[in-house]
Every structure is written in C-alpha cells, then in structure tokens.
C-alpha cells in the first residue's frame, strides 16, 4: 500500500513531465511550421514581381521595325523595365517600413503616333499600368539610352503614390526627375543642373521638374529618408502638410534657406545612390 502511495505521486510527476515534454515538442513543431510558413511567404513576397507585356502598335513603320528589332525580339524592353523599376523601388521603398505600392502588370506599348512626351503613363486600374512610348524615341541617335530614359521616367511614375490624385503634378514630376538624375540619366542642362526655383516659399511648386528635383535633393541631404517618407505619405490623401510631415519641419523654412544657399553655391547634385548607367545592360 505504501508503495502505491509513493508510486502515486511519482506517476503523476512522470505524467506531468511527459505532458510537459510533449507540449514542448508540439510547441517546437508549431514554431518550425511557423518559421517555414513565414519563409515561404517571404520568398513569395520577394519573387512576386509583376507581369510585363511588350506591344508594338507602330507595326511595319521604321520606328516599329526598330522597336521590334532592338527591344522586342530580344526581350530587351523587359530587361529595361526590370532594371529601371528596381532602381526606382530602391529609392522609393528603402526598407520594410515603406510598403510597396501594388503593381501587377506593366505594359510597354510603342504608340502608333508621336506623343507630346517621349513617354506617357496611363493606368488601366490601380495595379495595371501602360507605358506609351512615342515612336519619336526610336528616331533618337542613341536609341537605347533614349529608351532607358523614357522607361526609367515611367517606372518612377508607376511606383510613386499620388496622394490619391491630390498631389501636385509639379512635385510628382520633380520626384521623377530626382530619380532620373540619381540614375545618371538626366540630360545635362546648360546651367550644369542647378536651378533656382520659381518661388522662394514653396520650392516644389515649380513648373521646372529639374528645379524641384534639386530642391528635393537638398531636403534629402538635410533629412535623410525624406524621399521615401514623402512617397509613403502620399499614399494617403494629399494635404498641405504632406511635405512638412515627411521633412519633420515646415518646408517653407527649408525653401527659404535653399533659395539663399543656391545663390551662393556652385552646382553639385548630392548623389549618394549608385548610378544606374553602371547597372543597366
Ligand atoms: C486590372 O485589370 C486587369 C485586366 O484589365 C485585371 O486582370 C485585373 O484583375 C485588374 N486589377 C484590379 C485590381 O482591378
Ligand atoms: C514623329 O516625330 C519625328 C521627329 O521626332 C518625325 O521624324 C516623324 O515623322 C514623326 N512621325 C509621325 C508619324 O508623325
Ligand atoms: C551633400 O549633403 C551633405 C548632407 O547630407 C552635405 O554635408 C554635403 O555638403 C552635401 N554635398 C554637396 C556637394 O552638396
């Protein structure tokens, strides 16, 4: 009987120990499963790109034939989209705190007639975009560079949020230009790049995207991560404080100091990102 009394608690202890061990195993299995699921999901997220379609609407014209030969038949258009997209994404979504804009499908379409700009972006819906390339691009002497520039411009625009249609186009154009300059693609201007903005109080309300780009670069230099924060902020409805919030101080203040700085300094675009010219093709 006494043995039973001794056994009794022993058995209980054993059961408890077994139960604890069992639950540890379960816990470990759950953890392993969880990690597996997370890594599968992460891989999926990482590889999840967007579909790319290339279309030649210019048909059997000189521009159409050039496009087919140089960009369509060899998949070069696709490679240019991927490279320029990657460049814009790195600048606009530097880390996980900047959730990517959903993009499912990019269509590169050589237009049948000349457009007002080398490239015009339209959207089919919120996740599908069309890059209308003007046939005039195919007539450039350095046709490959002209094509890369057009697609870089377009892909920057694709990845930019627009304050739910409320962001000023001067600011969006300036951000596109900022990315082009960092990519080493912007045409060199007479002034060597540095442009005095039209207004010394709201430097991003300027018709010249190059001037806006230089102001944005100045802001990024003073407040690192500004460009990414600004794009993230433009995911929401645009308001008067969107730029100030991304800066963490009144933009007007920076505009005034920029305006006075630029009148004194020689040109120097503050580029810290790798140049795209080294990366593409
Ligand atoms: C956008 O349009 C395409 C077809 O034009 C469709 O397949 C896709 O599901 C649409 N996406 C959204 C988010 O509506
Ligand atoms: C498009 O513009 C180019 C000059 O950039 C011109 O040579 C060409 O004839 C134009 N094409 C059409 C279809 O108007
Ligand atoms: C670039 O920006 C940094 C601040 O981030 C500044 O100290 C430096 O002087 C700038 N360089 C040029 C050439 O403007």
UniProtKB/TrEMBL annotation:
Entry-linked InterPro entries: Uncharacterised_BSP
Keyword terms, alphabetized: Membrane, Transmembrane, Transmembrane helix
Transmembrane is among the record's keywords: yes
Transmembrane segments: 25-44
Protein name, per record: Plant basic secretory protein (BSP) family protein
